[in-house]
Amino acid sequence: MIKYIKETTEYLQEKGFDNPEIGIILGTGLGKLIDEIEILNEVSYNHIPNFPTATVEFHKGKLIYGKLAGKKVVVMQGRFHLYEGYSLQDVTYPVRVMSMLGVKTLLVSNASGAINLKYKKGELMLIDDHINLQGGSPLAFKGVEQLGSRFTDMSAPYDPEINAKIQLIAKQNSINLHTGVYASVVGPQLETRAEYRYLKTIGADAVGMSTVPEIIVANHLDLPVAAISVLTDECDPDNLTPVDIDEIIAMAGKAEPHMILLFKELIKLL
């Protein structure tokens, strides 16, 4: 894997991806942050050596390099998921590449369902902790110790200092920002009523199909990381209605401006 990561990194450096400071992963329906970036270069995933290819229709599949709030950033416009048939190592490969490019902070976004019924669709949740229900670890492979500590500490997976900055920015801008626990499942099917009850019982405030593997690898690399969920639906098992994916995408778009503001103001402080 080290050979592959170096190969990918060298390719991107040749394309002008020069010492980015901040890495950003954009989740489902959350691509408009790109409009705020002074784009210096972009490469489709399918042109990058050793990179997976996005197969989800609402994930663009581009790696973008540019400037945002005065900082050099590298942005994944579209991420990879287990439900696309990729391994956990594939899903997290871009995080390792971003780290080797020079990224010092990772910011992650996703669309998720609200398990905590005090949280409403269209609102944001800052992830404070998570529950890994994806059935594996991106660190469970031979030779992982060559890339970082095999037994990675996860007592505070989301950087407390960055989270505190995000909470302050939300308060200053009157953004209703919840804080909670994110549960990551495989998908792509949505949850049953019984599964929503189970998730609530074990302490989840929101549920989605991504993010946790990327956070684990960021911690493995000692890369400070923060993540924000855009809550796109309310998962009430006693009043469950069929989920409309188009509605989820629309709800992500509605809440996205607040997420963009939080990320832009945070980047100024990093």
From TrEMBL:
Keywords: Glycosyltransferase, Transferase. Residues 21-268 form the Nucleoside phosphorylase domain. Its EC number is 2.4.2.1. It is an enzyme of class 2 (transferase). Signal peptide: none annotated. It comes from the Bacteria. Pathway: Purine metabolism; purine nucleoside salvage. The purine nucleoside phosphorylases catalyze the phosphorolytic breakdown of the N-glycosidic bond in the beta-(deoxy)ribonucleoside molecules, with the formation of the corresponding free purine bases and pentose-1-phosphate. Belongs to the PNP/MTAP phosphorylase family. This is Purine nucleoside phosphorylase. It comes from Aquimarina addita.
